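Support request, please re-run this one:
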Amino acid sequence: MTLKAIPLKLWTRKELDTFMKDNLPVDMDPILQGKKAPPAGITKDILWNFAINILRMVDKQQEDLVKTKSEEGAVVGQDRSEQVLKELEAMRECFANIPDMIQKAINGKEKTDDTGKLLNPSPKKTPQKHTLKLEKVGLEKWKVVKAKVRKTLQSIPVDGTSSNEEDTNLVFKDKSQRDKAEELLKSEFDTSTATLTTKKLNPKVTISDIAGEITTAEEVYSEILRKNEEIKEQVECHQEELKVIFLHKEDRYAVVQMSKKIREIVRKRNDRINIDFQIHIVKDRFHIVQCFKCQRYGHKSDSVMCPRRDSGDPVCTYCAGNHRFKDCQVKKDRKVDSRCCANCKSSRSKIDQLNATTHTANSFQCPFFIMEKERLMNRTAGAEMLKNEYSRKARDFLERRRTH
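Re-run finished. Output below.
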């Protein structure tokens, strides 16, 4: 087996040159022969790369042998020749059946094509949440029985609750905790359980300053693929998601949803993407939903979560009064000192209550807006570093405001 038998795209990867030195254990023979399990983190690609580096060393030693014979003379060259040939024989014996050895080294179940790529890779573990549904316990009834349920489950951690008009769901991180809760509550309520796979949202971005000649979302999609080869390859060859949600024709911007991998490609290009005859700046987009009736975040005015859904009076965004924003006299009189955030005003935190008059309910400076944006960032794939940076700046800002 020689380097000619290895696909070019495998042995030209950047990490191959330093891989053995930085990452691999010294004694890999038992692992490659299937006699020993690979260490944690050693994948099929890693073993292939190791094998390829060994073959590179073999070829290099063959070249060195020729040079040694010509430079040091026949006697020294012969001694050197015997040493190298022994090493070559041991190496080639070890790697005579590389694919089979790697097959055993993983788990004997995974299959590969001619390039060593997995045909049936093991599925990645995805986070799960375990729910316990209290049937026929709608939002109103939940308010009545909540204290009783809290007392019953006082020793069991609950990650969260959600209610609609018909049922209430309790969320648990661990299945055993959910089963204990069901055992305690089934005598009082009709219950059912479910295990849900939590999948992160694909990132959304805003692309601004779209040319006037582009008039539809389909044209934006075609232009992105036509002008950006890396993205086109990911979409067409690897089935990565790229979707133009909408194109705002008046303000000339497009909202695009893309997979985590494509977002990383765009980020490496300094958040730039080519469309038509121009390069455009790409900005992450986190769409915050706010109810215009109660001013709370995470639902709309027709949601069962809105406490004012059935009442006629909304809460004012500007002054927290019982009227619509467009009818606010405080806003019309431009009384900045009389503005008030409805969320901070009704908060349990004394600090939030004291700072309620520093901003309106839809302000980016509102602690409840910041919490909602952090929650959305947590749900978005690949936004971890972005979220950490945003949280740090938000905390610094809130701390400065509290000290003044």
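The beta strands are 128-135, 160-163, 168-172, 190-197, 204-207, 242-248, 253-258, 272-275, 278-284. The CA atoms of residues 130 and 195 lie 5 Å apart.
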